[in-house]
Amino acid sequence: MRSSQNDKVKTLRGIAVSPGIIIGKARLVDRSRVKILYQYLVNEQQVSREVDRFKEALQGAKEQIAAIKNKIPEPLRKHAFILETHLLIMDDSMFSNATIQTIQSEKINAEWALKKSVQNIEKLFTQIEDRYIKERIVDVQYVAERILRNLAGREQEDLFEIKERVIIVAHELSPADTSSINISKVMGFITDVGGRTSHAAIMAQSLKIPAVVGLEIVTHHVHDGTLLIVDGQTGDVIIDPDDEEIILYQEKQIQRDKFESGIIRLSHLPAETVDSLRVTVEANIELVEEVVSAKDNGAEGIGLYRTEYHYLRSSNLPKEDELFEDYKEVAEIIAPDPVTIRTLDLGGDRISAGIGLSKETNPALGLRAIRFSLRETDVFKNQLRAILRASAFGNVQLMFPMISGLQELLDARAILEKVMSDLEKEGIDYDRRVRVGVMVEVPSAVTVADILAGHVDFFSIGTNDLIQYALAIDRVNEHVAYMYQPFHPAILRLIRQVVEAAGKAEIKVALCGEMAGDPLCAPILLGLGIKELSMNPARIPIIKKVIRTLSVQECGSDVEKILQLETASRVREFISAKMQPLLNELDQADLIHSNPDRP
């Protein structure tokens, strides 16, 4: 976050989560937390009254969430599960029963008992390493806040009732808030808190309205009716802009719209270099609903279908038929193009459906991904059956994550073959020639890539984890995140080693990490021999445009020079100089910054 020195006009920078530029008046929404000022003891007769107060507030919160769910705008229907999750939290014993038991055992007021229950749940969440899961504690906090408001008799403004075109400004917005937005009136929103994986960010992207979160102090400087400029591409928010700034941003939006419409019109053309190398550009998705967006942006298949959603959205393990229907739908929509379905990339710290695993001090290096699947074979077989059944309805490929050596791969394939045999005996159809691959994201897998290549049909390089493991850094740790360097010479050499191993074994190799969607990385990846890229659907038109300006022969020559450079900064300087004209064009439209995960 930054602010200008001028006291009248402040510019804040937050986290850009949904692109677009809007100019409009602020609508300040009070979402401040209910303050529990004190704990007080109650006598035996008052205990039942406090329990009843809590139960009434809890039931009121359930009815409020149900009412919001019933009037969710059509574009947000697919996210109704978020509100269902809130209803499940209210019924969870650690939340509701624990609060009632605390009132009864400690003889304290309902507000303080609820606070203690939430604190206990928060302690459990602090033990979780994964950022996405850790951030889900906000769902518990949202639910508690709604109940506390009911206990305090404080009504909450319904965003659906807003009657004029405004930019919502709030400390934070809950899923219930964003689910009830009047999309004909709300131009966009900005908040003090939040991140890229927050519900508010996901909702803004679904509604296709600009949004900036994590501004920290914007509610301190904005009042109802304050004129704002919000740039959802860069994360800039200008408060009380002058005429010159308004004109500048209006022109910027016109320029950006013109540039984007131009590349989107060409997004369905092949990504072919000037010397006729055809590069396959595919999409990474997590939800079935994203397939349409992928196709609209010119995807030539789904290079990575992350399958964790069903395992995270409820307290029960998904059933085989539930998984099958999703996988089948994706395969049918994207056909005849391929969909590469990655098996479960979670660990016991993220699945709490009665598996009974103990807590791990470092889940990132613990029982996760293929390790978890090989231990919990029933869960693994259930998913493999669903994937194989879906393969009868499209061009399905299957991929194992986090393979670190041959034995894991052999063990996984043995289970796969057993599942295939079972389906044969049951007379259930599937593609008997389904292609099987591995994600190369562990340095040891790179070292033995030549061995692994003899047992798979393709490699897919997952640079997000490969960079993190190879450079021994946590990219979400603010103290070392700067060391997350895609241009590090070690990373480029690791990629080259995988490509060479794949070439000798005559199997395909793709790259599906964040590097795939970075324009600066495109010439390096082509020069290293990557001919298949998979990325966020929104990045596809830009990357296709970049590829059509490149010569693969020249990229190969440049890579030989790049591999002699000794630091990441020198690699970046070299490639930036080579691509300067194109980068200028992207920069003028502010599209060079539009990859939110780019370090």
Number of domains: 3
CATH topology term of the largest domain: TIM Barrel
Low-confidence stretches: 1-7, 352-356, 593-599
Number of extended strands: 17
Report the average pLDDT across residues.
Answer: 84
State the oligomer: single chain
Our estimate of the beta-strand percent is 5-15%
Treating each run of at least 4 consecutive H or I residues as one helix, how many helices? 25
Q: What radius of gyration results from the CA coordinates? A: 26 Å
Determine the fraction of residues in helical runs and give it as a percent range. 40-55%
Q: What's the N-to-C terminus distance?
A: 16 Å
Under CATH, the homologous superfamily of the largest domain reads Phosphoenolpyruvate-binding domains
* Secondary-structure arrangement, i.e. CATH architecture of the largest domain: Alpha-Beta Barrel
**Main beta-sheet annotation:** 9 strands, mixed
Structural class: alpha/beta
Q: Could you say which overall geometry the principal axes of the C-alpha atoms support? A: globular
CATH class designation of the largest domain:
Alpha Beta
Summarize the structure.
The chain has 25 helices and 17 strands. A hairpin with a 5-residue loop joins β9 and β10 (278-285). The two termini are 16 Å apart.
Structure description:
This protein is an alpha/beta fold. The chain has 3 domains: 10-30 and 159-254, Phosphohistidine domain (Glucose Oxidase, domain 1, 3-Layer(bba) Sandwich), CATH 3.50.30; 44-152, PtsI, HPr-binding domain (Enzyme I, Chain A, domain 2); 266-588, Phosphoenolpyruvate-binding domains (TIM Barrel). Residues 1-7, 352-356 and 593-599 have low confidence and may be disordered. The longest helix has 27 residues, at 44-70. The strands form 2 sheets. Strands 9, 10, 11, 12, 13, 14, 15, 16 and 17 form a 9-stranded mixed sheet that branches. An 8-stranded mixed sheet has the order 1-8-7-3-4-5-6-2. The protein has 25 helices and 17 strands. Strand 13, helix 16 (406-426) and strand 14 (435-440) form a beta-alpha-beta unit.
